[in-house]
Amino acid sequence: MTMKNNEPIRKSELQEESLFEKAVGRRSFLQYAGASAAGIALVAAGCKKDRGYPDMNTGVTLDFKDDFGVLNYAYALEQLEAAFYVKVASAPPASFTAAQKAYFQDIQFHEIAHREFFKAALGTAAIGSLEVNFDSIDFTSASSVLGTAMAFEDLGVSAYNGAGPRIKSATYLLLAGKIVSVEARHAAYVRDLISNGSFADLNSLAPLGANNAGGLDAALTPDKVLATAGKYIKTKINVINL
Amino acid sequence: MNIVNILEEIEKVDGEIYERLNPRRAAMKSFFNIGKKISLAAMPLALGSMFQKAYGQTTLPTAVVDVLNFALSLEYLEYHFYNHALLGTDVTFTYPTAAAKTAITTIRDHEKAHVDLLVGALGSSARAPIAYADTDFRAGGTFATVYTDYNTFLAVAQGFEDTGVRAYKGQAGNLLVSPGVLQTALQIHSVEARHASHIRQMRTAAGSTVYKPWVSLGASGQANDSGVPQVDAVYAGEDLTVQANVNIANITGAPNATAAKLAAVESFDEPLDKASVITIANLFLQPGKKLS
């Protein structure tokens, strides 16, 4: 999230805070509002929290205090990717070749598998379903679809890479590792469709944290990832304990 | 001597210097405050120990050093494999397109960058360099045509990349103790996956067989989808369909059981343990130079 949002706490949020306190006891938190289009709020919470408190407004809350927060973050991104590919696979751009249609169907299945895996693994700790906003995508245009696919895949890689060191459990870290390399394979494939040979153009990935001199792929912190992904998500995402 | 200026200069080439020095910038303020109190003569020493801590060259845990040296061995192998394909005088195949040679050059450059990065991170703990003369990419004759037949070269390349992805994945848990190192290893890991994806596309473009950019099942439903039975070990266990007790084949949305199983296999890449990776790597190292 770009920090254009270091605005003073607004009154409505203070009111929310007091409501919040009634529900769960004493806590102080500061909400950085202003990710207006994104509908994402980064909240720095000051006190220890228990699970199960009501989400602020009607959105979902990613609480990064433990691995469940990281897994829910991945679940949110997989929801976004799956929704995109379901739509592409159901009605691919007319100029897609048979091979491209088949591979985008494959990717659709992969992303659904990732989404449903996180949902099942998180159980009652899972966030709800996100509502997406694909108004900016022209699903009849190959260039729009490919460009969006590339953005999602590269962002996904940067998200898993950036979140990996936050994971405390070796089991969850391995599961994230099993998924991120598949996302990287997708990313390379889509990039090559757009421009053959750009599969690992790390210079072009520098804005996502890649480093060509070190041969290092993208890696971004969750706030930056969500600020970008937020354009495609209607549901408000609150981020705490980041 | 102005420490703030020094740090700002370093930040131009290493944007994460403050994070390396201390995860919390706030803590840097306390260092500056101490700096005001200690004598100028003592500053270089304080600075030196601070950087040592930041880059961890002498403080890496043994387990982390082992992982990095293991990774370094693999990166040396990959680098020499591609570098020789570009420069070796005994290479007789020709690249079908300029783009193909450019792609191999890109991958070679990344492997070199990984070697340099790991050597730098390990410092004096780095293993002895592996030279091209220490390698045997013909694998004792198993891949005798690796540098005379483009398709064989690409088949071995795919094996290297898919092994690399599995090797890094298998070691991630050992790096939990060093989040900074883990971060770097993850960033190498996904680059190897991008390479693997592209090599698989190059193989498809070079022949009549289709190799998916992601690891799938072979024609007979076996774990090895490379079409090269000699590299079965590279793909052992890649046919897993259950993750953390969740049967993935039931949740892919695929229209039938065959497609669902493929999707379950493809959607998760599997790790490979160190011993298995070493067995594979040793196929390509001369006697006396093998990993243990």
Automatic annotation (TrEMBL), chain A:
InterPro entries registered for this protein in UniProt: Ferritin-like_SF, TAT_signal
Signal sequence, renumbered to the chain: none
The protein's name in its UniProt record: Ferritin-like domain-containing protein
Matches recorded under PROSITE patterns: TAT
Highest taxon in the source lineage: Bacteria
Xref: SUPFAM superfamilies: Ferritin-like (SSF47240)
UniProtKB/TrEMBL annotation, chain B:
SUPFAM superfamilies: Ferritin-like
InterPro entries the UniProt entry points to: Ferritin-like_SF
Protein name as it appears in the record: Ferritin-like domain-containing protein
Origin species: Pedobacter soli
